[in-house]
Specification:
Length: about 525
């Protein structure tokens, strides 16, 4: 690390991490011209066509992905899992499948029941609505005019009709809107797109203001290495940019928004965490807070994969090149068609037992063969169907690999660590297979890639342990609450220190039943509102 420290600049707020929560809170706080905000991210601008074109999701783009690995997973036969995380403006909303899901009303009422006042469904719904500009739905549950564009897909793929027919054949209800009072059923997902382009949190909350708000400063390529404290108060951030070590000072607050892996990592690097564990890395204790990095939760996910000759499934072989070229031409002219696909075009929420209060599994139906997160390629075209367990019992953790702030954290989701999760996944497998074996979907199947010989419950358990991994929804490592293992209070302020708040998915006390992008944006909206209220 060369170079000296630069002249220190001071802002009212420093936001570390430009993901879904960070962009939302920075965008909202900077609406007041008298409030200065600095937004730091280790990645780049994320404004290339690979990001803005939804089909670019299928193309490797390492500049926008931290591409973390897990430690070997005992519940997965010792396999090392993959944890892609967004890097750069927009964070994971710049590389995700753009599915717009809030979770179930029950999830937020459960948060409130744990002592988190102000986080019930009735409390958070206004912030979901405030963020949203929904072109298809309005009324009690939806917003118009917000910065986050939400609409139906423009891919025009006839697979939607076939998927809906399969749902009816399996006797599952068809659900048009997954973001109202209830979401049980199957259907077509809405996405965070605008006129056929990806609409990340950065495009919603930051990019429109870059040249207009002199009180908003965005620093890319800025890797935060330490929170600076004076007398128990967070007063700034140290970061590396290029070969220089720099500092920014915060007059009011430092706001962490690095996500479920990197917010606890930065806390620990700064001396906030379990004192004994920090001591093993030679890190002095600023404040002993044993819950930092604990309570990691993620959706364990299994993927059914089938080869198919159906012409509307995606495959990059030369045989499909003409359709790909036509798709590019249509996209340039109309911003419709193949290039607008989010791949996970259909899906929904199901109960594996009728006595359950809320759905316990979620499906993502993908118009391509997805093997090992798309990293293993196949010659055939085909389709896939994810099934994930929405509220797993297993809890994992995030720890420091070393005191090196540029090293990746140690990530242990503890997938299938609890026996109950494995049995729930067995039930989820069977429920999803009911859908896969309907006449509508059987007619598309040329070959069952991984489950043709899976018949007994033991067969199912084996294939689950061999193939389950994340569906990209890690949360909980800086959980909100008032108990001894809580890291932030219901105002999202870090316990035991001043001037430090966390605004990302790490604050979720429990994993919500669905995709986590929209809820994290909601957290950013609500945090900004709480902060503004304290400034009045």
């Amino acid at each position: 690390m060369g170079g000296g420290k630069s002249v220190t600049d001071t802002f009212d707020f420093i936001v570390v991490g430009a993901g879904s929560g960070g962009c939302a809170v920075a965008g909202r706080l900077s609406e007041d011209a008298a409030t200065s905000v600095a937004l730091l991210d280790a990645g780049g601008r994320n404004d290339s066509w690979r990001i803005t074109t939804p089909f670019g999701l299928a193309l490797p783009y390492s500049a926008a992905n931290w591409a973390f690995d897990t430690v070997p997973q005992k519940g997965l036969n010792g396999r090392i899992g993959y944890q892609p995380r967004g890097k750069g403006l927009g964070g994971s909303s710049a590389i995700n499948a753009m599915v717009y899901i809030r979770g179930h009303k029950w999830d937020y009422d459960h948060w409130a029941s744990l002592g988190n006042d102000g986080w019930s469904y009735a409390d958070v719904l206004p912030y979901f609505k405030r963020s949203e500009n929904n072109s298809d739905f309005d009324g009690e549950y939806h917003g118009k005019g917000g910065p986050l564009h939400v609409n139906r897909l423009r891919s025009d793929n006839p697979i939607h009709d076939i998927f809906h027919q399969a749902a009816r054949e399996a006797q599952f209800r068809i659900r048009d809107d997954f973001n109202a009072e209830d979401h049980e059923g199957l259907g077509s997902y809405q996405v965070t797109q605008h006129k056929g382009e990806r609409w990340s949190a950065a495009r919603a909350y930051v990019n429109p203001h870059l040249d207009k708000r002199t009180n908003l400063r965005v620093e890319t390529g800025a890797h935060a290495t330490k929170i600076l404290f004076e007398g128990g108060r967070a007063v700034g951030v140290e970061y590396v940019q290029g070969k220089q070590r720099k500092q920014l000072r915060a007059g009011r607050e430092v706001i962490l928004a690095g996500g479920a892996f990197q917010s606890p990592q930065l806390l620990m690097l700064s001396g906030i965490g379990d004192g004994e564990a920090l001591g093993r890395h030679g890190i002095g204790v600023t404040h002993h807070l044993p819950g930092v990095g604990r309570n990691l939760q993620d959706h364990p996910d299994f993927v059914f994969v089938y080869a198919s000759d159906y012409p509307h499934f995606v495959h990059a072989s030369l045989g499909r090149l003409p359709s790909l070229l036509r798709g590019i031409q249509q996209y340039r002219k109309e911003r419709r068609g193949l290039m607008t696909t989010n791949f996970a075009e259909c899906g929904g929420f199901l109960k594996t037992r009728p006595d359950l209060d809320v759905p316990d599994i979620q499906l993502h139906f993908v118009i391509a063969m997805l093997d090992d997160h798309g990293r293993k390629k196949h010659k055939e075209a085909g389709f896939s169907c994810h099934v994930c367990l929405l509220r797993p019992k297993s809890r994992g953790s995030v720890w420091l690999r070393s005191a090196d702030p540029l090293a990746a954290p140690m990530i242990d989701p503890n997938f299938l660590g609890e026996a109950e999760d494995l049995e729930s996944m067995v039930a989820g497998f069977k429920t999803t297979r009911r859908l896969m074996e309907t006449p509508a979907l059987r007619a598309l199947q040329k070959k069952d890639m991984f489950t043709s010989d899976v018949r007994t419950d033991d067969d199912i358990r084996n294939v689950l342990r061999n193939r389950v991994d994340t569906v990209y929804h890690p949360v909980g490592t800086c959980k909100m609450g008032t108990d001894a293992m809580a890291v932030v209070d219901p105002k999202l302020k870090v316990h035991g220190v001043d001037g430090l708040r966390i605004v990302d998915a790490s604050i979720m006390p429990t994993l919500i039943g669905g995709n986590t992008n929209a809820p994290t944006i909601m957290i950013g909206e609500k945090a900004a509102d709480m902060i503004k209220g304290e400034m009045r």
